[in-house]
Amino acid sequence: MIERCTVCVIPASFPGVTFDNRGVCSICQKFEAQKEYIPSSALLKHRLLEIIDEARSKKLKYDAVTAFSGGKDSTFLLYILKKEYHLNMLAVTLDNGFMSEHSFKNMRIVLDHLDIDHLIIKPCSGLMKEIFRECIISDIYPEHLTNYGSAICISCIRMVNNMCLRTAIEKNIPLVMLGNSPGQLIQSENEIIYQDNKIPYPLRKRLFKSLADKIGENVYYYLMLGQKEYKTEPFPYIINPYPLIGYNEEEIYRTIDKLGWKKPDDVDPHSTNCRLNSLGIVVHKERLNFHPYDYEMSMLVRLGILSRDQALRRVEDSEGKALELAKEIRGEIMS
Ligand SMILES: [Zn+2]
């Protein structure tokens, strides 16, 4: 009986996965046959530089909105974009009401150090709680999303992307930079540089219909743009630079340490900024019987970014502290 792939860490409970007689999963087999993670990597790198040059040539107040959670990945991204790509950035933070207090301290220290303007968007907490509550008590997203993350994180990430995009449109900023790790980019290389105005409006709305039915039409504003906003010309580019610029956790920690960033002590060991993370994990495992990080961590193993043992440690049973925190936050949300 296979529990996890012998190469990566994908568990047998992951939807649709099969194993060969060596215990290697179908995702690893497909990855191996495909050989390259990003077939047109060289082209995309060139395209990234082109888009950045074009943005900078406009001499606008800001070249890019950068989603900034205060976590390690977005902190390092800000640093690289400022120091190596010389972008004028507006750091945008979505405060979901459950951010670690320590993480705000990190944000201030890092942004002071890098001399970057900061915009914090904080939606009313009642609505945020209602959204997260629905993520706990019902299945609101389809499998093609929940395979790659918890419903709580999906909701939050959608809001972050949407608020960054809206800010870019309102302030006439040509680029939106996101700090997803290479393992979080899932479907295809089209997720590295794209303009998110191609999906038909009714189709996009359908994704959040179940939430809207339960909580009210008001949620659409936070999760997607309005019809008119999608028609903005020129439409901002969304860029996930990590697969192109390289992702190395040791380098990330080493660099942000020099910026004064400290690992928060008020979150679970697997998050560097959000107190909701552990609850997202617990609920996901209860409802779907696999870890919301299984896919991401297994991809990081395939890419040689993490060893299989390192990845295993991140997807195996949570420590007491994380479970305690999850329990506490569940109480807060359900009350
Ligand atoms: Zn595998």
Key traits:
335 residues; alpha/beta; Rossmann fold; six-stranded mixed beta sheet; globular; binds zinc ion
Could you walk me through the main structural features you see in this protein, from its secondary elements to its overall organization?
With 335 residues, the protein is α/β, with parallel strands linked by helices. The chain has 2 domains: 1-35, no CATH class; 39-335, HUPs (Rossmann fold, 3-Layer(aba) Sandwich). The chain is 51% helix and 7% strand. Strands 3-2-1-4-6-5 form a 6-stranded mixed β-sheet, with helices on both faces. The radius of gyration is 20 Å and the shape is globular. The chain binds zinc ion. Residues 5, 7-8, 10, 24-25, 27-28, 298 line the site of zinc ion.
Q: Layout of helices and strands, plus pairs?
A:
Layout (H helix, E strand, L loop, with lengths): L25 H9 L6 H17 L6 E4 L4 H12 L5 E6 L6 H14 L2 E5 L3 H13 L5 H4 L4 H20 L4 E3 L15 E2 L6 H7 L1 H7 L3 H5 L3 H4 L6 E3 L2 H4 L3 H10 L18 H12 L5 H9 L5 H8 L4 H15 L1
Helix pairs in contact: 3-13, 14-17, 15-16
This protein binds zinc ion.
| CATH architecture type of the largest domain | 3-Layer(aba) Sandwich
What number of domains?
2
Largest sheet: 6 strands, mixed
Instruction: Count the E strands.
Output: 6
The name of the CATH topology of the largest domain is Rossmann fold
Small-molecule binders here are: zinc ion
* CATH class category name of the largest domain: Alpha Beta
Strand content: 5-15%
Structural class: alpha/beta
CATH superfamily assignment of the largest domain?
A: HUPs
Low-confidence stretches: none
Average pLDDT for all residues: 92
**Helicity range:** 40-55%
CA radius of gyration: 20 Å
Strand order of the largest sheet: 3-2-1-4-6-5
- The geometry reads as globular
C-alpha end-to-end distance: 41 Å
How many H/I helical runs?
17
Helix and strand element order: HHEHEHEHHHEEHHHHEHHHHHH
